[in-house]
Write a structure and sequence with these properties.
13 helices; alpha+beta; disordered C terminus; single chain; 36% helix; 16 strands; 438 residues; 5-stranded antiparallel β-sheet; disordered N terminus; elongated
Length: 438
């Protein structure tokens, strides 16, 4: 018995049976023959984006210049030798085409024998074509990117009719540094030439590519460690060198942490990191030198806090003292809240602050929530029961020259009352000291 030919015949019969499904799905009808579970959800989604009941794929097509630019910047370019070596038998078979797509499903590299690329062109799988699930339905790389796992799509499972003579096997490739999806590798060709072990092979090659990326990351950490070691030796104290993704290369004077959580955008200067608090950040080749600095203590009497309300649309609070200083830009609500606390240094209850902010003493839950958010940055300088600035804080409130420019968009009754009083000639606070009312 010719098992390969029998499988091909079965696939052709299934494709004919599913033609009715491909026509019924976009029309909103219930198909007589439902696709497999792996394809069913994709068919439903793609039916809304592909015209003509799956007659052809839709999506963006990169031109040659755009494709070259994506190739130069894609991290997958580092693993092309691994993919080539692992899938070379398919690339040289003359029947299959090996495709490498980025995380957006765009084909960036394509390799095959004499007839493979020509077949791919006939199926609309040229360089730069988009193969996302939303435009092509279940089709190798698009489905593996959507599901984040290796998949096999047989000819009858394709939504797009022009692909129903091909079988596709694909596996995703992720970045070991942060788990981000980088793209997928796909082997496509006639069903009769596909071996059952193809899926396992492609998945293994994808894992080898991830291992190669992991090796490259470890090498980059070694380079950063070599650069950081003499810097840390000179610095002394507490310091850590991390790469752009927060992975630790070297540390001195503090417990080792494998990875630090970094903000999306980190710049030289002062920053507040989740696990370290206020820090000094300096650039290094391939990473950052981070040095924790002591939080100014309100109790020590060395902390100075400047609430700057002089600019109409940019209000800030600046903290200095100890070995660290930093500035934080305030939202209107938090500027209102800190200004009202500065007006009442002996403290305000939640109900009183609710009346000052909203004209409604019952809105204490909202006040407590806002206080909680402010305390994430100023926890060392704020007390509660009642809410107030700590006794040891040297507080400086800077107000605009024109009283009407004091938080001009604020509708908080406490701020409006103070603004109107100052505008009629009564002095407003410019600075506050502990125990003193403005």
């Amino acid at each position: 018995m010719d098992v390969t030919r029998l499988a091909a015949q079965k696939a052709q019969a299934a494709a004919r049976a599913l033609d009715g499904t491909g026509a019924a799905t976009p029309a909103g009808q219930r198909p007589q023959n439902a696709p497999r579970t792996v394809a069913e959800g994709s068919w439903s989604r793609v039916a809304r984006g592909v015209a003509g009941a799956g007659h052809g794929p839709r999506g963006d097509l990169l031109n040659l210049e755009e494709t070259e630019r994506c190739r130069r910047t894609a991290r997958l370019r580092h693993v092309l030798p691994v993919l080539h070596e692992g899938l070379l038998p398919f690339a040289d078979s003359g029947q299959h085409t090996v495709l490498v797509a980025d995380a957006e499903g765009r084909v960036l590299w394509r390799e095959g024998g004499a007839s493979g690329p020509r077949r791919a062109d006939g199926h609309g799988l040229a360089d730069g074509v988009e193969r996302r699930e939303g435009t092509s339905g279940p089709a190798g790389s698009g489905t593996s990117l959507a599901t984040r796992r290796p998949v096999r799509v047989v000819p009858a499972g394709h939504f797009v009719r022009t692909l129903r003579s091909w079988a596709c096997v694909s596996a995703p490739i992720t970045d070991p540094r942060d788990g981000r999806l980088l793209g997928a590798v796909d082997v496509s060709g006639p069903l009769e030439t596909h071996h059952p072990a193809t899926l396992a092979l492609v998945a293994s090659v994808a894992k080898l590519a991830e291992a190669r990326l992991r090796d490259l990351h470890l090498t980059s950490l070694e380079r950063l460690r070599a650069v950081a070691a003499p810097v840390l030796a000179r610095t002394g104290g507490h310091a850590v060198a991390v790469d752009d993704h927060g992975w630790t290369a070297a540390v001195t004077g503090m417990p080792y942490t494998r990875r630090l959580a970094l903000p999306e955008s980190l710049a030289p200067g002062r920053a507040r990191l989740p696990n370290l608090g206020p820090c000094s950040v300096e650039p290094l080749p391939g990473g950052w030198l981070i040095r924790p600095c002591a939080e100014p203590s309100a109790a020590s009497g060395t902390a100075r806090l400047v609430l700057d309300l002089t600019r109409p649309h940019r209000w800030t609070v600046a903290v200095s003292g100890g070995t660290c200083s930093w500035t934080h830009e305030l939202s209107l609500r938090h500027a209102e809240l800190l200004y009202l606390l500065a007006l009442h240094r002996t403290g305000r209850s939640a109900a009183a602050l609710a009346a000052d902010l909203f004209g409604d003493p019952a809105r204490t839950v909202t006040v407590r929530a806002e206080i909680s958010r402010v305390r994430r940055r100023l926890g060392a300088f704020l007390e509660h029961r009642p809410y107030r600035f700590a006794e040891g804080v040297d507080l400086d409130v800077r107000l605009p020259d024109d009283p009407l420019d004091l938080l001009p968009h604020s509708l908080a009754p406490g701020v409006v009352r103070t603004r109107e009083t100052s505008a009629h000639g009564r002095p407003a606070a410019t600075a506050c000291t502990p125990g003193e009312h403005p």
